[in-house]
Amino acid sequence: MARGRIALSDDDIAAKRFEANQIFTPSAPVAIAELFAGRQKQMGQIIDAIGERGRHAILYGERGVGKSSLSQIIPFLLPHGTSIVRHLRVQAFPGDSFSTVARRIFHSIHFDADYGEGKKSYNVAEFYPNDITIDDFLSEMLVFKENELPIIVIDEFNEIDDEKTSVLVSNIMKALSDSISKVTIVVVGVADNVGDLIKGHQSIERCTEEIPMPRMAVPERREVLDRRLARLGMSILGDARWKILNLSKGLPAYVHTLGKFAVFSALQDRRLSITENDVDNAINESLQSSQQSLRDIYEAAIHSNNTRAQFRHVLTACALARVDDAGFFMPASVREPLANILKHPVHIANFQDTLRDFAETRGAILERVGEPRSYRFRFRNPGMQPYVIMRGIRDNVIDETARRALSSPEQPELPFASD
Questions:
Q1: Inside any domain, residue 67
Q2: What CATH code is carried by the domain that includes residue 140?
Q3: Full domain range(s) for residue 282
Q4: How many distinct structural domains can be found in the chain?
Q5: 416 pLDDT exceeds 90?
Q6: 12-21 contacts: CB < 8 A, separation 24 or more?
Q7: How confident is the model at residue 412 (pLDDT cuts 50, 70, 90)?
């Protein structure tokens, strides 16, 4: 029997493949508490906010870093006690008003009562046929019993484009704090800072826990991967593991995607041990399964009728450039990875017009901030960075030396890394 292979039946393979689809979830938040990994600091901050009467939480960060997953498992973070946790989680959408968001929350509040027709189950929204006001909302927050611990999560808060709604939520948080209510409001959204997410935040600074959610550190990514492989009864070789961790660039969705397809590759060969070749297969599968929007924006960015154009090379160098904590890179950080790709020295003047095009045209694949001569750039969609690197691997834009570096734990320290 070949090394690494065991007697796996077709049924065994089908069962493990099905389970892999259940626990590697790149397209959805992690809803199984025991599979949630890392984020100890953020979890501690949320627990502290819930534990203190009159305190609320604002969870913010880049898209795809696991904010929604963390908000899903809040009930499992709390120590066991006599209080009954009422975890009410709703999602905001473009065009929402305060009333529509409040109505979703009221729909989630159920109770049993007898109004002359026998005991029946109701939700609070049934009693508000018209628009819900801030006074209506505050009144309902007083109805919770003393032994209940209400936690109201408003996810995707950044989707709300009505400034008045944002201000009203701010006012509600302050009013609940002033009344020393047991209700905790947790606002979750995509933003670089609290001010970008919720208007009037200055007035609630004293009663809110501001929780930034950065990209996952390497140990956290490793925990995400290893927990799932252990559940499947599978193992992974060191170079294969590091390739997944380094390619994911701190975004858990890519750990899930690459991990799942690497598992599929190993199972197809009737193995329970994942090799680097399996990860290479996973890269190709990931690219084929990527969102059409990523592919379209990438193609728009690199398209040119000039065969000597270097848009693909510059974009790949951007994905490999060193970044700050907010994901921004300076043009100077692009120079070295681009020189490695082109195999000759380059100057910023050689590609600064291309960076401008990436920010202004060519799908606006990059976001640009700052002033001329001090511009900083980052990918508008964080998921584009790993995608561009994987395209560079597949299309042989990234050479063998850089590919080998991706399989090394020292990779984040190399000149062309961006961890």
A1: yes
A2: 3.40.50.300
A3: 10-27+217-289
A4: 3
A5: no
A6: 13/267, 13/268, 13/270, 16/232, 16/233, 16/234, 16/263, 16/267, 17/263, 17/264, 17/267, 19/231, 19/232, 20/228, 20/232, 20/260, 20/263, 20/264, 20/267, 21/260
A7: very low
